[in-house]
Structure formats: C-alpha cells, structure tokens
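Hi all, long-time lurker, first post. I run a small reading group and we've been trying to get comfortable going from sequence to structure in the token notation. Rather than ask abstract questions, I figured I'd post a concrete chain and ask someone more experienced to write out its structure so we can walk through it together at our next meeting. Sequence below, copied exactly:
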Amino acid sequence: MSPVKTTKNLRLYRTIAEVADELNVQQSTLRYWEKEFPQIKPKTNARGVRHYRDEDVETIRLIYHLVKERGMTLQGARKKLEDNKEQTAQNHAIVQRLLRIKEELLSLRKELDRLPESESATE
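-- Answer (accepted) --
Happy to help. Here is the structure in token form:
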C-alpha cells in the first residue's frame, strides 16, 4: 500500500509542510517537482510561503503515483500528464479504490480466520 494519506481537507489552501506530511515526501521534493511540472502552481504570499490548492495536491498525488509507485522517470511522468492527465487521474483513482477494497477484503479474511471452526462452518 502506498504511504500516501488520503484525508480530505476542507481548507482552501495548505502549506508546503502540510502537503509534504500528507503525501509523505520531503518539502524539497515538492519544490523540485514544482520546477519540473508546470501543472503545479501553488500561490505564494509576499514572504514566499507556498499555499497549495486541492488541485495542486491532486496533481502531486498523480506525480507521486507515477514516479514513486510505478517507477517512471520525471520526464516520463511529465509527458504522461501533458498527453492525458484526465486518463492518468482516472487510472490512479481506480488503483486507489482497488487498494482500499483489497485492504477491506484482507481485514474481513483476518476476522474470519479468528472465528472458531464451529462458528465459521455454520455461516
């Protein structure tokens, strides 16, 4: 399972520290990805503090999936996002849903394994 946390944030903007923690990456990685991927455009205030929108975070999640989970190069991930971001996003969403289903099935299996033989045989 990916170390990416999937909590939904209700705020409009998140800081780089919050996003890095949520996605389990270094802040320097996010800054580097900003330079490599024109799709990531956080707002910055007068002091240069980055504020990421949900769209930015979703794009970063896609990049994380392509680079860290699928092993693509940054150049390959950039091309994939430029060519067909919507399809890539749909595929990522499907993979995430399947991983959640797998976790649930494994949890159910673990619960069934804990039942005494006589109880599991009657159900």
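A couple of things your group might point at:
Strands lie at 14-15, 43-44, 50-52.
The radius of gyration is 19 Å.
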